[in-house]
Amino acid sequence: MKSSSHTDAASEGGGSSSSLRLPDHKLYPIDANGIELMLGGMASAMALVSPRKSLNIYDNPVKYLTVTATVLFGYYAILAFAGIYCFKAPTSRRRPTPAGTRITAVIYMGVATLAASLVISIGLVLFGAPFASQHAETFMAALNMALLGVTPAILTLKPSPEAWRKALISGEPKSVPELWAAGLFWSTFVASWAAAYFIPLDWDRPWQKWPIPIVGGAFLGNLAGLLYVLLRCFILPLARADYAETERSKRDMVRELSEPSAAKKEL
Prior knowledge:
Blueprint (H helix, E strand, L loop, with lengths): L1 H17 L13 H16 L13 H22 L16 H28 L8 H15 L1 H6 L4 H8 L7 H20 L16 H55 L1
Helix pairs in contact: 1-9, 2-3, 3-4, 3-5, 4-5, 5-9, 8-9
């Protein structure tokens, strides 16, 4: 008799647990294919940072950085044209976006990235980059920095000063796309600025040649920012949601199991 009541209670508890509303993971608005595309693009770009015999950043930094910039821009252009940029929350199902709108999005991304690279070039010169020489090296470094730190924000944020201020500067609570844009922006530029410390040292190493340190810092900082965003915006919220759901299920199970015992004592 006791076993039967226990089994019934357990089945009731299981039914109660299964009827609980699962978390909707509002902080996880991303499809798996987006993550794979993003990591694939980053892996392709990071692979180019290692020295190679046929394409050596030490001997020809302009050509090398041109290739890395082409890889990054092509990657973002594909995502922008296809409308599957990773950290932009999906909207409701609607009619397919016209090809003209998609092409406009890619053109806007390219023009905005180019403008950002020009601004970054001026900033690099103001912070000590060569002024009378190595103009191509400085611009290609700025272009790679723009693609790593600014283009994700261009694709994610609305084209308004207020949206950029809220995402990048203000301390207001941020959405996932805003955290994504701010994380990659600041990690890229802070790491690049910190890496510039190695340029004036008298170590006489080939990787101290301008602009290798700041570009390497930008790539490493971007990777660190990517890991931070994945952990802060997706892994931890999912873990918290699953933990909370598990605890609710346990409490419901204990309550269902304790009710028959309480009723038996009353009898």
